[in-house]
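Chain A, query sequence.
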Amino acid sequence: MKLWGGRFQKETEKAVEEFTASVRFDRRLHRCDILGSIAHCHMLARQGIIASEECQAIVRGLREIADEIAEGKFQWRIELEDVHMNIEARLKEKIGEVAGKLHTARSRNDQVALDMRLFARDAILAAIERLVTFQRTLLQMAEVNRDVTLPGYTHLQRAQPVLLAHHLLAYFEMFQRDVERFTAAYLRCDVLPLGSGALAGTTFPIDRNAVATELGFAQISRNSMDAVSDRDFVVEYIAAASITMMHLSRLAEEIVLWSSSEFGFVELDDAYSTGSSMMPQKKNPDIAELTRGKTGRVYGHLQAILTTLKGLPLTYNRDLQEDKEGFFDTVDTLDACLDICNRMLTTTRIRPRAMRAAAGEGLILATDVADYLVRRGLPFRQAHEVVGRLVAHCLTAGKDFTQLDLDEYRGFSSLFDEEIFEITVDTSVAARKGSGGTSPQAVRDALAASAGLIQRTLDWLAQRPEDANQVLPE
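Chain A, predicted structure.
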């Protein structure tokens, strides 16, 4: 018998059960479902809605079910549709009809909304923790390689020399914005929907604030209709994950380039590379490539949830069952990519000589030469033209700036003197002293500021309340 079957005269067709069942994937919410049910049961007993001994029996039964699931002994039944009804049916088998009192003042609509928010909160915190770990890796690499210089690129063309630490800290900043996005998403997710009923609230004298406190929620929802149909927090998680994946993909692309023979800036560890079944010499950056590929997968989930939600009238519609698989896969994909990319990065060997050689080749100091003329009174646009003609001369003559003599320089402007030969890769880097620049001092300041941002995030994480039922098995 279905737990909702009283109104129906026919059994559900097996094809319908298969089509509508979500237990194959929403069973993942079992721990959240049991935590929410225990908190709800405690509140019902405190409010005198159920007896204390009934509460004790229900909670004991729920904890035993949690043990059964953790031990792999729980039998999931597709005819019971979802995680909620499977657990409730098993609870009835264990403690009898009193199990039916657990659903007093509650609907599956606000129950699943609670489960999803509990799951999303944990997922958000896990994402932030992994991002901080990644930031620490970037910071450590930047510290260790603080004196390494490489070319900075625009349009994938060598542009100006920069410190490797400065380059790595650019990714630190990207991930810092990701941390801030997930933190903001957490605050909007941290709202208790339970107590909203199916859509209009409940006639029972419940204490929603007590449930919120037990489950560690900062506030309760203000509108019951919105609470049961809101999945903005799912959208926000996937959106934040999409941006993080985009940042990971950009880093992955650079790893692919830098590890190639054409660049040779880094060497990936054997343990985090793969080979070719045909070409013995190959060492492939598959982790970076798969991260790049999985980014599109997460983007697809974002488009899917937005499309699902865009036409739904208030309040709950069965379409909302489609919020889970893409969400769960996004969580798994993001966590896996952050973890494996961090491991890959920590074992990657930097090749400072190759980076430095590339930074010293060609005409990468052209902007510094133009700035040199500007400091001698020439308007920048004119200086730009002069150096452009000088570059054309070098290309024709097969030279770079280090191979020119003073007469050649003065053939393009009388403002050139012996000081032009003082411009080097090192002076170019050191000259960019402004806040946010690539000079050694600016980078030292940035490293210190970045460490402070990590600590701020750790302090915020430490302040998150833990719900009162964390003793359930994982």
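The longest strand covers residues 157-163. Residues 5-104 form a domain with the Fumarase C; Chain B, domain 1 fold (CATH 1.10.275.10).
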